[in-house]
Amino acid sequence: MKKITSFKEYREIIRYRIGTADEKGYKSRLSQAAGCKASYLSQVMSGAVHLTPEHAYGMAIFWGLNTLDTEYFLLLVNQERAGSAALRQYYSGRIRGLKQDAMDLAKTVQKDSQAFTDPALTALYFAQWHVAAIHLLLGIPGFQDIDSIAKRLQLSEKSVLDGLNLLSRLNLAALRDGKWRLLQNDLHLPKDSPLANLAHSNWRQRALAAQQKEEGILMQFSALNTVALADIPRLKEVLYDAIASYRAIAQPSAEEELTCLNVDFFRL
Q: Whole-prediction pTM value?
């Protein structure tokens, strides 16, 4: 499913949603949710009339859009309904701001607000790769004790114990009935955090280490290109959509293997 923020006109969103629906009577249900007749929606699609903000909000609820996507859809409607160039320019600026927010993964990833409130403990969590690895590994059956974790990650038992104790202090894991249990796992470090570069560096070093193992690397790709400046935002959006699709599959996936995805897109 394409992201709402990848569209430039609200009618494109409606056409896409109708075109990808696999149920009979979808257009009729959509118009009912919007609070208008199907004939009126047909006029909207032909460009004869516009949706009202009330119609648009009803559609957003029907589609189950999140807050950011709902606001984006409403702004597209208001931009086209605007009666002056100045007002259209105002909405255009708001739309650009929301698109930028949508490209900020930290704002679209669900994360616990209490986990990283202690700066010292937060720094310890991101200082070494193995703490986060231990954290996620706890979610896989068979890795709830020090010995199994140490063997899987090729760490000393002391390093594993230290990592587990840190996770416990962060309320990310707990020892229950002799087994370590995962409490929270969907966390994301904001890109403006001073620890972000350290965290990225740690996992890129692990990627280099994985190259030494034939079974370590699941996929590798590097591309050196010259591109138009105007195409850079489009390329970033393609990568963001790919990451969003990756997360949509990975988040509900069964916890069976520990993997890491690194993505780099930069100017030389």
A: 0.58
